[in-house]
């Protein structure tokens, strides 16, 4: 899985936002605000990555347990899927 092309992560005034660019700006109105963990996950999803690898990277970066990492990733992916931002 990975995020769709046409969206860029930017840090603005110590906040992370995802903004549409190019054709995506026509189809998607608005911006998405992410916390540090969301920004980390987004950056990992720029390339095609499997769930297990994404979880391993999150656990290593934030020293969280397996259950917490799984829940956080599933919730994040569900929100991205609902907004049609992953493929």
What does this structure look like?
The protein is α+β, with helices and mostly antiparallel strands and 87 residues long. The protein has one domain (7-82). Helices cover 49% and strands 17% of the residues. The chain contains 4 helices and 3 strands. The chain has helices at residues 23-27, 36-44, 51-62, 66-82; strands spanning 7-12, 15-20, 32-34. A hairpin with a 2-residue loop joins β1 and β2.
Q: Give the C-alpha Rg.
A: 13 Å
Domain count, please report it: 1
Read across the widest sheet, the strand sequence of neighbours is 1-2-3
Distance from N terminus to C terminus (CA atoms, Å) equals 6 Å
List the helices and strands and how they pair.
Layout: E1 7-12, E2 15-20, H1 23-27, E3 32-34, H2 36-44, H3 51-62, H4 66-82
Antiparallel strand pairs: 1-2, 2-3
Helix pairs in contact: 2-3, 3-4
Descriptors:
single chain; 4 helices; globular; alpha+beta; 3-stranded antiparallel sheet; 87 residues; 49% helix
What can be said about this structure in brief?
The chain is of the alpha+beta class.
């Amino acid at each position: 899985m990975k995020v769709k092309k046409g969206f860029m992560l930017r840090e603005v005034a110590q906040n992370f936002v995802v903004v549409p660019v190019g054709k995506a700006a026509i189809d998607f109105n608005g911006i998405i605000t992410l916390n540090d963990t969301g920004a980390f996950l987004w950056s990992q999803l720029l390339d095609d990555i499997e769930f297990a690898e994404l979880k391993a990277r999150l656990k290593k970066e934030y020293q969280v347990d397996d259950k917490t990492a799984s829940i956080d990733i599933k919730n994040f992916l569900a929100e991205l899927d609902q907004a049609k931002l992953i493929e």
